[in-house]
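Fig. S4 source data, part A: sequence.
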Amino acid sequence: MTDAVAEGLIRYDDGRVGCWWAGDDPLYRAYHDDEWGRPVTDDQRLFEKLCLEGFQAGLAWITILRKRERFREVFAGFDPEIVAAFGPADVDRLLADPGIIRHRGKIEATIGNARAHLDLIGSGTSLSELVWSFAPEPADRPARFDYAALTAFTTTPESAALSKELKRRGFRFVGPTTVYAFMQAMGLVDDHLEGCDVRAELA
């Protein structure tokens, strides 16, 4: 990372400009540039992200990002059919794995979410169809770095409504704030700041 540009943005050595939170961690920057805010409709990727956002609750996302590959290994690539079949022995195995977040409630929620996902499919609705039905109309987002404005977008009416529907369908660790972070990451909303190169690409 080199000099800052407008407040809330950073310019890298290669000349690209990104949002402040990507910082100078190469893993975080790649996530910002290549994933965050880019629309995703693949059910398995959506399921993975929803579960990982649940694991992130109370932690920094970079913590999960650094452990993501191990999460993928121990949760069978977040294949819902495989994860839904996990039992008590699998929970014990996961609780003993230092490569992930060893939180019984979150592990059991992920297994339960896989079962809820299969129930959703069985009802004739894909996870993609469900979550994208709650995508808001494009709206003005904070153009400049403003802590107050950014804080105001930790939840929205749409994230609260999607959270309620996911809970109704049996998903756990899907509160409105977690769901809004999921919506940001999966491209249901675009919260890249004005001046960010990715925002220009998505536009």
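Fig. S4 source data, part B ends here. The chain is about 55% helix and 5% strand.
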